[in-house]
Backbone:
């Protein structure tokens, strides 16, 4: 398991994206707008990490000479997973799902959810349900070509949403992002 992406809801996606681009070397991946049934909108941008991201669970070889002290052992190669997570940034006007979320958090916003890449979304979802780790926003994972994902309700421990995701490619599915935003609007309004 590793972090797939971190999603922020912010007041100004351009300023926030510029920070990640200038300070950490991210690049702009895709930009899109989501229109909701009530006429409100959310504008979104996916930022790509400065490193090339391995496909699914491709391993990165790391010489142990470059590893922290506890892992040093001659010239053995350590197979590890590099984690250049994508960053997803969205904003929206006052009265929109995203805009109201930002206002409820002092007008700044913050981390909305963290997505963890897993091998089997449904199995991990069932495990979390059985162990009482989380309640989910849907009864089964959301799917679209090359993507399967499910979202928890905001955690009682951290206040954020966790996403379990399995990818067979790159990018985000606009329909699933819209479904997440719509499914959390009532939950997040209750938190205010």
Residues:
């Amino acid at each position: 398991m590793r972090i797939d992406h971190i999603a922020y809801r912010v007041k100004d996606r351009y300023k926030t994206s510029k920070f990640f681009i200038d300070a950490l070397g991210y690049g702009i991946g895709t930009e899109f707008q989501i229109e909701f049934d009530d006429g409100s909108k959310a504008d979104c941008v996916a930022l790509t990490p400065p490193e090339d991201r391995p496909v699914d669970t491709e391993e990165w070889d790391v010489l142990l000479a470059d590893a922290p002290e506890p892992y040093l052992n001659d010239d053995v190669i350590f197979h590890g997973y590099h984690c250049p997570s994508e960053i997803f940034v969205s904003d929206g006007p006052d009265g929109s799902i995203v805009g109201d979320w930002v206002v409820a958090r002092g007008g700044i916003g913050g981390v909305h959810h963290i997505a963890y890449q897993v091998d089997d979304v449904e199995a991990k979802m069932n495990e979390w349900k059985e162990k009482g780790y989380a309640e989910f926003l849907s009864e089964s994972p959301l799917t679209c070509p090359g993507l399967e994902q499910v979202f928890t309700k905001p955690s009682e421990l951290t206040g954020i949403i966790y996403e379990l995701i399995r990818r067979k490619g790159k990018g985000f599915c606009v329909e699933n992002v819209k479904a997440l935003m719509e499914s959390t609007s009532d939950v997040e309004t209750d938190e205010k």
User: Anything to note?
Assistant: The longest strand covers residues 2-10. Residues 52 and 97 are 33 Å apart (CA to CA). Strands lie at 2-10, 27-35, 41-48, 60-63, 77-80, 86-91, 109-117, 142-144, 147-151, 161-167. The first helix runs from residue 13 to 24.
